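Hey L., structure's done. Input below.
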Amino acid sequence: MGRTLQNTMINLGLQNACDEAIYQLGLDMEELEEIEEDAGLGNGGLGRLAACFLDSMATLGLAAYGYGIRYEYGIFNQKIRDGWQVEEADDWLRHGNPWEKARPEYMLPVHFYGRVEHTAASAKWVDTQVVLALPYDTPVPGYMNNTVNTMRLWSARAPNDFNLRDFNVGDYIQAVLDRNLAENISRVLYPNDNFFEGKELRLKQEYFVVAATLQDIIRRFKASKFGSTESVRTVFDSFPDQVAIQLNDTHPAMAIPELMRIFVDIEKLPWNKAWDITKRTFAYTNHTVLPEALERWPVDLVEKLLPRHLQIIYEINQRHLDHIASLFPNDVDRLRRMSLIEEGGTKRINMAHLCIVGSHAVNGVAKIHSEIVKTQVFKDFAALEPEKFQNKTNGITPRRWLLLCNPGLAELIAEKIGEDYVRDLSQLTKLHEFVDDDLFIREVAKVKQENKVKFALYLEKEYKVKINPSSMFDVHVKRIHEYKRQLMNCLHIVTMYNRIRRDPAKLFVPRTVIIGGKAAPGYHMAKMIIKLINTVAQVVNNDPVVGSKLKVIFLENYRVSLAEKVIPATDLSEQISTAGTEASGTGNMKFMLNGALTIGTMDGANVEMAEEAGEENLFIFGMRVEDVTELDREGYNAQEYYNRLPELKQAIDQIKSGFFSPNEPDLFKDVVNMLFHHDRFKVFADYEAYVKCQEKVSELYLNSKAWTKMVIRNIAAAGKFSSDRTIKEYARDIWHVEPSDLKIPPPNEPRDAAEDKTLNGTAA
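Output:
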């Protein structure tokens, strides 16, 4: 979620009033804002997308809730020591959190372990261990519409009789100390992005958030009088019409068997009725196609932790496979491929298959990704129910990612096209009229320059590094992962360095290359990539021949509040994943909206950015998905590129020989070995096209006016990438609710006065 203070002031229309009031108290608002900790309760794009969605849902007046876990420790703080990533605990609640309100009155029990007792009538889950879920509510204000929604995060608490009701009379002290075991569930966020780690505590977390949330939803449904004559509701027929649950990846997939358990075991609904309601309630969003990221929980673990849920999953699977067998008799291979249970070695539950079978809608997060989902990853399921599969291209909230982080640009745009674009970003197309307006071109360039100077001062103050604000800011910020190819950027840096040294007198467009992002603590290769970047930076930044032509910065502890500073200052946005691997990306959209140009592959939402702005207004290079598939068919041979491309050979030889790490010459042998022998993401195959494309970037940067005109064309084409547009599509195509742009009356205005206004049409 990042920080809350400035976002709240903007959405409530109070920023100027607060700035002035704080100033009159002799304080500085920006200093105050810097004191707030980021809420870092997710890993990367997935968590930030949810935060943008909450902002858009409130702004569109939807009655929506965001549910999650109130981790005591969020994503780790990253320190760079001697070029290596070191993790520190993110004790973000140390000074309290003024935005949250604990709601002990809504505390709910969550059960684990135990066994299942079968009677003739039903199944009973007994002898369980209970953990209490304590909700904390954080307000989510819509933009200037007097709507405030709720984000409800669950914290784990041990019941007061924990370990004491057992025949454990003796050790009272130990029993109280053991409360930590239960409360560890919400202690810490697992720091993996795009990687599945099948740990018991993680499965506990996933079930914890799901079980608490579903009880909460059902309590609210039963209490609502809407369309019901009974004092307490017991009929669930209207449930899917009143409730829509969106599964953000497979992490909350246990919600499907849990809702079935509630309906069948507790509410005594017949299976078929329960299953129909369940399917119509859930929809599933897929966020990655990387096989190592797909959740596949061992059956043994689920059987121990959630025995009743395993039985329900088996039953779902049996009926699912019976249905497929009836359509495709004797096709045992299809049954194997489509089963929720993977045999062979340890039996596992494929959570994506569970989500697809248990949902009425499945979507990818960019056109190209949704196609890959349909034609490759889940093609058997798409063949069965093509109407179930949709696309919902991701978006970003223009409140945080323009108004808040780039007020200079936001104001400049408002002067030209009015302020309405903040709620309807498609209006940015009106900027096309000003692409040849010399004054506007100069003003856009001036705002960018001011942002660069401001960021340079921040870097100098915080990290004691001096950078040249007139150089091109070439920025690559995102989680460190092989598929995102920070290594390819690194090879380009080494190539630029070698060119400067080969011919120091030749004209070279000065660059500051900024790379930032966290590596999962257990991801060895990602940590080596960070070390390599820092090692190269040390050599490049201290070579007198290079001087100020090339600087390399590794941005420590990349997070939302740092993104808000670096993105508005960026000239060139690096979006260089291997085609077919980045589901969408959202950083790409943030840079586009903030006046950076994109160098990127035809991957994720880059494809649609090129479609909106015109491919000639992005620096697109490298293999397309078809080329990658073809190269896989032929067999990728890294050696061949190394032999054919002298500059690539030189760069690799330098890394391999210890040119950058003379004290430990074979420090990067693992990295080099990977690049030659098992590089799934084909860095060498795109290297030549990337370097040539970077030459075109430098050439255009020399012509400031032509560069800025391209920037304006990009901003004018960024409207599609508002999360408001994304949420309208979810609302209409999946949830079947209508967004409203009505501004509800403020609480201080009498209701009848507000109704008179509405009649006169002023509130519409």
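Residues 442-718 form a domain with the Rossmann fold fold (CATH 3.40.50.2000). Residues 754-764 have pLDDT under 50 and may be disordered.

-- N.
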